[in-house]
């Protein structure tokens, strides 16, 4: 039911001696007995977690297919020599992706250096652990 240092993490099934379980773990409600009800709850929890992860991976792959290789156009104000007033940051890129593709992407998942002049720049978006999408941002007037 809780993490126990040197023994196991919450939700794990571990073997301990009878005395340790009866005298320490059970009275403090740190652990419960591994009866049939507890085992079926553990299996259900693991199956639900596995399904959640599979769903997230499928959504990330679908988003990658939608974003991969695309170019997002952005406008910015600049001086006469093409140097921007300020810069285009990951927050701006995430906002542009929201406008163009309708998907909410956290600015911390967007990997881009600060863009300080007009041009086309590569952007990496981390959608899930091991799944990244590469696209381009074109900054113009």
Gyration radius, rounded? 25 Å
Q: Which class do the helix and strand fractions yield?
A: alpha+beta
β content, as a range? 25-35%
**Looking at CATH, which topology of the domain at 69-140 would you report?**
Ribosomal Protein L9, domain 2
Q: Using the alpha-carbon principal axes, give the shape.
A: elongated
Kindly report the name of the CATH homologous superfamily of the domain at 69-140. Ribosomal protein L9, C-terminal domain
The major sheet is characterized as: 4 strands, mixed
Task: Provide a count of the helices.
Answer: 3
CATH class of the domain at 69-140: Alpha Beta
**What percentage of residues falls in helices of 4 or more residues?**
25-40%
Detail the topology: elements first, then pairings:
Blueprint: H1 18-25, H2 36-67, E1 71-75, E2 83-88, H3 90-101, E3 110-111, E4 115-117, E5 119-128, E6 131-140
Parallel strand pairs: 1-6
Antiparallel strand pairs: 2-4, 3-5, 5-6
């Amino acid at each position: 039911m809780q993490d126990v240092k040197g023994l196991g993490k919450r939700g794990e099934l571990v073997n301990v001696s009878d005395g340790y379980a009866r005298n320490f773990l059970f009275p403090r409600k740190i652990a419960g007995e591994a009866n049939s009800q507890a085992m079926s709850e553990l299996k259900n929890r693991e199956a639900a977690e596995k399904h959640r992860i599979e769903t997230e991976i499928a959504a990330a792959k679908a988003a990658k297919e939608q974003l991969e290789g695309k170019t997002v156009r952005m406008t910015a104000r600049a001086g006469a020599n093409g140097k921007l007033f300020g810069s285009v940051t990951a927050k701006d890129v995430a906002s542009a992706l929201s406008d163009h593709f309708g998907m909410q992407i956290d600015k911390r998942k967007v990997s881009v250096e600060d863009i300080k002049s007009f041009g086309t720049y590569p952007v990496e978006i981390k959608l899930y652990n091991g799944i990244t999408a590469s696209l381009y941002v074109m900054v113009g007037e």
